[in-house]
Design brief:
mainly alpha, 80% helix, elongated
Amino acid sequence: MNKLTSKTERTKAFIIESTAEIFNKKGYAGTSLSDLTAATGLTKGSIYGNFENKEEVALAVFDYNYSRVSKRVLDLMDKAETFHDKLMVYAKVYKNISRAPLNHGGCPIINTAIEADDTNGLLKDRAAKALLKWEKNLTRLIEQGIEAGEFKTDINVRQSALSIIALIEGGVMISRTTNDPGSMEAVVNTVEMLISQMKK
């Protein structure tokens, strides 16, 4: 990697990290160019010299915020010994997001999905892919738990995976909208109960 490329990559990373919280809190539409210049201390020309437009910054920021949550999940999952405990990692991580956010402003998936909806196809696609990946990961863990004899054999795997996601993201939305972390705790308790009911 030459020095120019290295400097370009460092500048891009700086812009992404500096604006991650703003995009996650204010959303794509609510984040202005002046927000980006204020957060980075860079000029408009410097930002758009590294990214084609604000949407490209937003996409990179979504990937960054999502990867931070994913890394936390994977790090804790590596330490979990049972499939039950691996599933419980999701409840633990998202409960902590509502208390002391890994990404200030809450979960990047639901924030992006709600805002993008039908107004920004690229951001909506990023959020959709993240949700589908989450469903796939949960489905695999439940199936592995069944195969290992840890979970009941009559579990509706997809329904359980989707229910866990819906409860967690619904809890994040309620907690953030009402400014009440306690509501997230109540929802996570339900998630934990659902996971525990899978055990034989």
